[in-house]
Give the backbone structure.
Amino acid sequence: MRDIDRRDREYLQESEIEFNASFIVGGQVNGEPLRLFRIYAEGNFIEAGIDTPFLQTGETKYGKPIIDRVITPATPLAEAAKCVLVSFDSTMRSNLSVGMPIDLICYERDSLEVCKRRRFDDGDAYFSALSREWSEGTRKVFRQLPEFGW
């Protein structure tokens, strides 16, 4: 990241483009534990662990609160995947620069291969239903909250 910044900074500044990129990189070397990292534009990183049970990159202010309220270390994989999709949906509703497609993969410890993969494009039936149900459910729960009094 630092090398690219040094190499291309002058050209990017001429076009008034700010260089910025971050990545989530994970995997496993045979016989070693599974590891997951978030690499920041500056070149530093954090590793997923007990204190950071999930990593998120990009626009986080809209979808992260959903993940924070739902995900625990005991959350089953299918529920975690559903939560991530709801998080994406909420982010896309609030930020026009975030959009489809969404690529979701599953890597199971010690399998040494991606075992599940799903791409969600515009109009995907499951994602559309999830988005609709989440919106309706959120409005329903909101209406059930205790009345506010002045």
About this structure: The two ends are 53 Å apart (CA to CA). The chain has a mean pLDDT of 89.
